[in-house]
Design goal:
Low-confidence stretches: none
Shape: globular
InterPro entries: Aldolase_TIM (IPR013785), rSAM (IPR007197), rSAM_sf (IPR058240), rSAM_YfkAB (IPR031004), YfkB (IPR014866)
Helix content: 25-40%
Largest sheet: 11 strands, mixed
Order of helices and strands: HEHEHEHEHHEHEHEHEEEEHHH
CATH topology: TIM Barrel
GO molecular function, one term: 4 iron, 4 sulfur cluster binding
Mean pLDDT: 94
CATH architecture: Alpha-Beta Barrel
Number of helices: 12
Structural class: alpha/beta
Number of domains: 1
Distance between the termini: 37 Å
Protein name: Radical SAM/CxCxxxxC motif protein YfkAB
CATH class: Alpha Beta
Radius of gyration: 20 Å
Number of strands: 11
CATH superfamily: Aldolase class I
Strand content: 5-15%
Organism: Thermoactinomyces daqus
Keywords: 4Fe-4S, Iron, Iron-sulfur, Metal-binding, S-adenosyl-L-methionine
């Protein structure tokens, strides 16, 4: 497989175009550089941790035309990245043909980086006729084996699914990852840290390396939708898990810590020490949260524009009537944005994710805090 776009810089630990840090550090302000489209509410899984599970449906209507979506993208002069999510975007062939492929083609021609979120459990042939236009294939990986997959992936299913079916899907996920990785596809496997995955995260990391994935994304469990009632790790447990993963790091796999619940303004020395270690370790990065800092999510059915596809902030506007740039500027004036959009250049921190801040730091006003360390 050839690189997606000739002449553009590859995605590496030194250059992550989704990271809100880059634009904020370079320009002194947040700009809309990323748009995410939710292109389907269909999915063949019902995972216990799904942060959009309550929006999933069995049947859905017709989406907004891709021409209208592209017209709104044309208006965003600062656009650098586009993400496609669901549901499972590949489940409906019509969505692939009428929405995904035209969007990827548009981005390739414009030099926009692209990412698609998939559970990778469908036959390999469903990916091969469009994936050459994609920069990053993002998958979820929160399992040790088929038994874990069976329990987790069908926890919220309304009808019984037999183990053999789940085992087939799990084995297909792993084999698809191996084959696509061998073809040169950049696969980024995400694990959500929970009391279960925390215990087995090093094993999962090694499996991800064995599948050929170039990157392992690690995020907190987001307490939203299906996951709303699940137990969260304490900060002490989370910190210990991160250190253990770093100790077991496969050197050829890039580990990206996203929406990290530790900050350089922490009053705890162990939090500040972890922040510094993460910035010292080779092939390890901390991504500053894109949601609301350089990215908006667009529902391709209703046209509603929100800060994130799994947040509780009401819609900020609608692409049928509003420009995305105007919606983004409106969000920057929102009280929630002002409370969490702190920025410490010397500590390389752009503040917390909204859900993480609410879960762990509900009494903090980040705009009034200051970093206690610097990153050299």
């Amino acid at each position: 497989m050839q690189p997606n776009q000739k002449g553009i810089r590859p995605v590496t630990p030194q250059y992550d175009p989704w990271d809100a840090w880059m634009t904020r550090a370079a320009t002194g302000k947040y700009e809309l550089t990323s748009v995410e489209f939710t292109v389907t509410n269909l999915c063949n899984l019902r995972c216990e941790h799904c942060a959009v599970g309550e929006t999933l449906v069995e049947r859905e209507g017709l989406p907004i035309s891709v021409d209208q979506l592209i017209r709104r993208l044309d208006e965003v002069e600062t656009l650098k990245t586009l993400s496609i999510t669901g549901g499972e975007p590949i489940l409906n062939p019509r969505v692939v043909k009428e929405t995904i492929r035209p969007l990827l083609k548009y981005c390739r021609e414009r030099g926009i980086y692209t990412q698609l979120n998939s559970n990778l459990t469908l036959p390999l042939s469903r990916y091969e006729d469009w994936i050459e236009d994609l920069d990053v294939l993002h998958i979820s990986y929160n399992y040790r084996d088929a038994e874990d997959f069976y329990r987790i992936a069908f926890q919220k299913a309304k009808k019984d699914v037999d183990f053999k079916t789940a085992e087939t899907l799990f084995n297909r996920l792993k084999e698809n990852a191996r084959q696509l990785s061998a073809q040169g596809v950049f696969i980024s496997a995400e694990s959500l840290l929970s009391p279960f995955t925390s215990r087995h995260i090093v094993k999962m990391h090694q499996d991800i390396a064995e599948m050929g994935c170039k990157r392992h994304e690690v995020h907190p469990l987001y307490p939203s939708d299906f996951a709303r009632g699940m137990e969260l790790l304490t900060l002490d447990q989370y910190r210990e898990t991160v250190h253990r993963l770093l100790d077991g790091h496969h050197p050829e796999v890039w580990i990206l810590f996203g929406t990290l619940p530790f900050y350089p303004c922490s009053d705890k020395a162990e939090d500040r020490e972890l922040w510094q270690r993460l910035h010292r370790e080779p092939n390890v990065t901390v991504r500053q949260d894109p949601d609301g800092r350089n990215r908006l999510n667009v529902n391709a059915f209703t046209g509603d524009v929100i800060v994130t596809d799994f947040g509780d902030v009401p819609a900020l506007g609608n692409i049928k009537t509003d420009r995305l740039d105007d919606i983004f500027q409106q969000w920057l004036e929102h009280p929630l944005a002002k409370k969490t959009h702190c920025f410490c250049l010397k500590a390389k921190c752009a503040g917390p994710n909204l859900l993480v801040a609410h879960a762990y730091y509900a009494d903090w006003d980040f705009s009034k805090r200051r970093a206690k360390i610097e990153i050299q």
